[in-house]
Structures are given as C-alpha cells and as structure tokens.
Specification:
This is V-set and transmembrane domain containing 4a. Helices cover 19% and strands 49% of the residues. The chain has 167 residues and is of the alpha+beta class. It has a single domain, classed as Sandwich (Immunoglobulin-like).
Length: 167
C-alpha cells in the first residue's frame, strides 16, 4: 500500500467516524401521539450516541401549530431547566413539568390536562456542547418532533369499537 492509499484510508475512517457518532435524538411517542382530553401526556426526548462523555447538553422543547411559529416551552442549559411563558401563558393553571429521567439521556415533558389548545407539534432540539479554550462550543445537534392530537374520550371509544379492539 502506498502513502496516498494509506492517507485516503485514514481520511475515510476519520470522516465516517464523525458521521457514525452523530447525536441521535428521538421523541416518544412518535411520530403521532393521541391522548384523551383531560388526561396527562408525557413526551420523552431520548438522546443517544453522544460524541464526548465530558460534554454537556443544551435542550429545548418547542411547541408549534404550524412550521415557523415555534413557542419555547422549556430550556435546559448546564443542568438548569426553566419553564418559559410563551407557551404556558395561555393557560390559567400550571401546564407543564420537565424532568430528567436518566441523566444525559432521557428528558420528559409532562403536559397536564390535555385540551384542544395542546394539539400541535412538540419538538425536542438538543445541542452537545463542550468548553474549548474557555469558550463553550456546540459540535453536535439533533432534533425530533411528535404531533400531539387530543381526542375526546367518546371519539376514542368509537374508534376502538369500530376497529374491533376491546377496551
């Protein structure tokens, strides 16, 4: 093997390693979650394939009825979560709770008392960051979305009965 072939092999391995180690984000349930009105819903953002064990995650949950009209629900930065008012200001009572189930991997958004106003797209956006020369630097991103559909209990009963699925 000559030097140029060896260099090509090493370069290919380095590039493929970057692709294979990309941040993977998924939202469960997804791509669609149907929840009876009046019930609570838990949306789980699962993060896998982190590139560096010493990195930190910046995570945001966003709500949108349509593309381009996102409202920030929660932002977690360096282990601190804040619930923002853009989304929750529409409701009279506390509407969401955010908690980390498995450190660095699983983040839950609990939405209380599902109503028609909660229908829409919920997106989990994650950045993997690390400190480099005294500055924070993002080096990996991931995004996943699920659509929440609130249904009346009666509509769900009719759907289950028409499909022949016992409750």
């Amino acid at each position: 093997m000559n030097i140029s072939s060896a260099f090509l092999v090493l370069l290919t391995r380095a590039l493929l390693a970057e692709v294979c180690e990309a941040l993977n984000v998924s939202v469960i349930p997804g791509p669609v979650a149907v929840v009876p009105q009046g019930h609570n819903a838990t949306l789980t953002c699962r993060v896998t394939q982190r590139r560096r064990p010493s990195s930190l995650l910046v995570l945001r949950w966003l709500f949108s009825l349509e593309a381009g009209q996102e409202q920030l629900i929660v932002r977690m930065n360096v282990r601190r979560a804040q619930v923002y008012g853009n989304y929750t200001r529409r409701f009279h009572q506390p509407k969401v709770s955010f908690f980390e189930e498995k450190e660095g991997e699983t983040y839950n958004l609990l939405i209380f008392n599902i109503s028609v106003e909660d229908r829409g797209h919920y997106t989990c956006k994650v950045q993997e960051i690390t400190k480099h020369h005294s500055r924070w630097r993002a080096f990996s991103n991931g995004t996943a979305t699920t659509e929440l559909r609130g249904k009346s209990v009666e509509a769900l009963l009719m759907l289950d009965l028409s499909a022949g699925v016992p409750l």
